[in-house]
Write a structure and sequence with these properties.
alpha/beta, single chain, TIM Barrel, 444 residues, 15 helices, 5-stranded parallel β-sheet, 20% strand
């Protein structure tokens, strides 16, 4: 058993906020009791027995040892959930693998992650799906994965979506590559809806992009490139929202980057409860100026845009247009990121900095309350993918994150295999003290 004492809990599902003591049964992986601060050990122990867990004693006995941790007012929240990560396994494990990715997630306070399917081989067959899920079960956190929408990410033939769903695929995506065939997308949305699973789309029209990863504006001009114009995202979001509304299917717009796309989602959500959107910490924190300062370390798809876009994303998070925060954790090797800007791959890692950036950029600047931030990093993404996560409740999963928003840390020494981050060297608020998954402390 594990007793967390004097923690300040935030539960976005119930709205409960305040000091509580939490008793966890590590055998069942469940929360046994959430008690008012200062409840006697005897009362909590009685609740443990009443719940059918048998005899146990505290520090003065030897049966059923109880580990007590005094949190001294640190925040206790549902384990964070990231529904957009790349662990590069199978196929690119020199960048990251499922084990190192999971450790990076735990370091950042995440107890559940949903992997993208642009691996090699892609997650378009039962064998690859089984490999990823089996490896994920060895990590100590909950590792889910999407399957591909199309075979081999080619955009020509749909996968066996029904079969992959029945085998455990959490959703469907060809993330990294947009679905250009409108008829194929429409059929995919219909089939995903029948499976009760969402489709998440990468929204960039390659026909409009000269150089990906760099905004067609000040950053592209700095590097004498054509860059990636905002219209590449806007046109795809507009088309895909129209189709999703017609099909009444769950659609998530991934890593939104433009103010126009935010407004398109805002209007679509007024017409349907099937529309969702995610924002990354880097898109609500940085602008294209970071690409000029940090080079390829700030190159990503879609690219960092202008200040007006960054503020529109924050406004979307405030008013509920953007449901969730997802990192798009995208590891690359140092050698790859040191290539010239046009040759370096796009993407940055984000699992270990996401919570801190949310605190610094959204909470400390008054855009969101801490409860709202945690809701967008736990409950909302869990709901989209129908995961049993994102809430604190007696009898519920003992997946919790404990952090101190008052402490600061320096961004360095990542647990991830990769270090491709423009935030290296910065001091950030919010130190994760404990990540608990299934009632067990996760060593990151």
């Amino acid at each position: 058993m594990l007793l967390l004492k004097n923690g300040y809990i935030l539960d976005p599902a119930s709205g409960i906020e305040g000091y509580r003591d939490i008793l966890i049964d590590s055998r069942s992986g469940k929360i046994v009791r959430i008690a008012p601060q200062g409840t006697s050990a005897g009362e909590i122990l009685q609740a443990f027995r009443s719940a059918g867990y048998g005899e146990a004693r505290w520090e003065d006995g030897s049966d059923g040892p109880v580990e007590e941790i005094d949190l001294n007012g640190q925040f206790v929240v549902p384990g964070l959930v990231d529904v957009h990560v790349h662990f590069r396994d199978p196929g690119f494990t020199y960048k990251e693998d499922i084990h190192t990715g999971a450790h990076s997630a735990a370091r950042g306070g995440f107890t559940s992650v949903v992997l993208m399917a642009n691996t090699k081989p892609a997650v378009d067959h039962p064998e690859t799906l089984a490999y990823v899920l089996e490896k994920g079960r060895e990590t100590g956190i909950h590792v889910y994965t999407c399957a591909n929408v199309t075979m081999g990410l080619q955009g020509k033939e749909l996968t066996d979506m029904e079969g992959l769903s029945s085998l455990g695929a959490a959703g469907f995506t060809d993330d990294g590559i947009p679905l250009m065939d409108e008829t194929l997308l429409r059929e995919a949305l219909r089939r995903a809806a029948k499976c009760g699973k969402p489709i998440s789309l990468h929204e960039e029209n390659p026909a409009l992009i000269t150089n990906n990863g760099v905004n067609a504006g000040k950053a592209a001009a700095h590097y004498h490139l054509g860059g990636s114009p905002r219209e590449a995202e806007i046109s795809m979001v507009e088309r895909d929202l129209r189709i999703a509304l017609e099909e009444e299917a769950d659609l998530s717009i991934q890593h939104i980057s433009t103010k126009e796309a935010v407004e398109l989602v805002r209007q679509a959500k007024k017409k349907s409860g099937h529309i969702y959107a995610e924002a990354t910490p880097h898109h609500f924190t940085l602008t294209e100026e970071a690409v000029i300062s940090h080079g390829a370390l700030a190159k990503m798809n879609p690219p960092l845009r202008e200040e007006a876009d960054r503020l529109a994303i924050i406004e979307g998070l405030q008013d509920g247009t953007i449901d969730m925060i997802a990192t798009d954790h995208a590891p690359h090797s140092t050698e790859e990121k040191e290539r010239p800007i046009t040759e370096a791959p796009s993407g940055i890692i984000g699992l270990e900095t996401a919570l801190s950036l949310g605190i610094r950029e959204l909470v400390n600047k008054g855009y969101l309350s801490m409860m709202e931030l945690i809701g967008k990093m736990s409950l909302a993404p869990a709901k989209l993918y129908h995961l049993d996560a994102g809430y604190l409740k007696e009898g519920g999963p003992a997946d919790l994150t404990v952090f101190d928003p008052r402490k600061e840390w320096t961004v360095e020494n990542f647990v991830s295999k990769a270090a491709n981050s423009p935030f290296i060297g910065e001091r950030l608020p919010g130190v994760v003290s404990y990540t608990i998954c299934g009632g067990k402390m996760i060593d990151s």
